[in-house]
Amino acid sequence: MLRSCISKRLFSTTRARLDTLAFVEAAGGKISPASLSAITAAQQIGKPITALIVGEQGEAVSSEVGKIAGVSKALFAKGEQYNHYLAEELSPLIKDILSSSSDYTHFVTAASAVGKSVLPRLGALVDAQPISDIIKVESENTFVRPIYAGNALATVKSNDKLILVSVRASAFAPAELSGDGSVSVEEFATVFKSDNRTEFVSEDLVTSERPELGSASKVVAGGRGLKNKETFEQLIEPLASKLSAAVGASRAAVDSGFCDNSLQVGQTGKIVAPELYIAVGISGAIQHLAGMKDSKTIVAINKDPEAPIFNVADIGLVADLNEALPELTQKL
């Protein structure tokens, strides 16, 4: 009996460390808020977190990674092929890292454009079923995710040895940068050749002094009811400026050319959950509601009293937006 107890204790002390590998995106020399939210989800899984940073952006934020609460180790993959987060380059890299050690049980990424592109490719490479867009961590292998455009929630349990997860940023608060930065950053030497036939050509970034839409605490969004681009700019922009809010739009407004598609809120756009969401001239199609209905306070302005947006609004104003918005902006 004594021998049995001793052998169990020896086994527990020599057991391999089981970690979560979390991919950290960066932009403009800063860690993306979505990645910080993904780290929060990784913390709730309850295992030590290894952060993965890549390319020039990763090098720029390497000192900041050590300050993220819950991160115990960081890996840095150097190489210009990772500068623009091409999924065709990132997926084999992450597979190589996960295969290089049996310590990893989870891979976590934000459900951003990069994460949505990387995760299915990685799932195919490691033969695991990804769980996408989670909004809650029930346990280390059980998660909650929305289905049917957010009209139902599915609780999903994974039996895979390696669990792949993407995280809806609006469902988790960003992890705090409260550490002392003492976490060491190790360079991961890649030994594979990706044979990638995709190459980065160029990018055209829309720059703005406004808050970033995905992480803004206040959002003013316009829809088809604004009729044209000129009205959109004349009515939405001044109100957003007064509130120091980000500007959003429905898909109908984006498809009609009222604004850039980077401002689209909805099932096929950005998922937001600000403290205040003002929907102007937006009817409330189910696809749009899926992207904003978790907002803390929803204000709807629409001349149609039967518009579906009023079913989720905390405050509704049935009025002509051409009259109501200038007055609201002036009084603010």
UniProtKB/TrEMBL annotation:
Q: So which domain of life are we looking at? A: Eukaryota
Q: Which residues bind FAD?
A: 224, 250-251, 264-268, 281-288, 302
Instruction: Provide the cofactor note recorded for this chain's UniProt entry.
Output: Binds 1 FAD per dimer.
Under PANTHER family, the record lists: ELECTRON TRANSFER FLAVOPROTEIN ALPHA (PTHR43153), ELECTRON TRANSFER FLAVOPROTEIN SUBUNIT ALPHA, MITOCHONDRIAL (PTHR43153:SF1)
Does the record's keyword annotation contain Mitochondrion?
Answer: yes
Q: State the encoding gene.
A: ETF1
Could you give a single Gene Ontology term from the biological process aspect?
fatty acid beta-oxidation using acyl-CoA dehydrogenase
Query: Pfam families from the entry?
Result: ETF, ETF_alpha
Q: What is its main location?
A: mitochondrion
**Protein name, UniProt field:** Probable electron transfer flavoprotein subunit alpha
Checking SMART domains in the record gives: ETF
What keyword terms does UniProt attach to this protein?
Electron transport, FAD, Flavoprotein, Mitochondrion, Transport
- How does the record describe its quaternary structure? Heterodimer of an alpha and a beta subunit.
- Report the family membership: Belongs to the ETF alpha-subunit/FixB family.
**Native source organism of the sequence:** Scheffersomyces stipitis (strain ATCC 58785 / CBS 6054 / NBRC 10063 / NRRL Y-11545)
Where does it localize?
Mitochondrion matrix
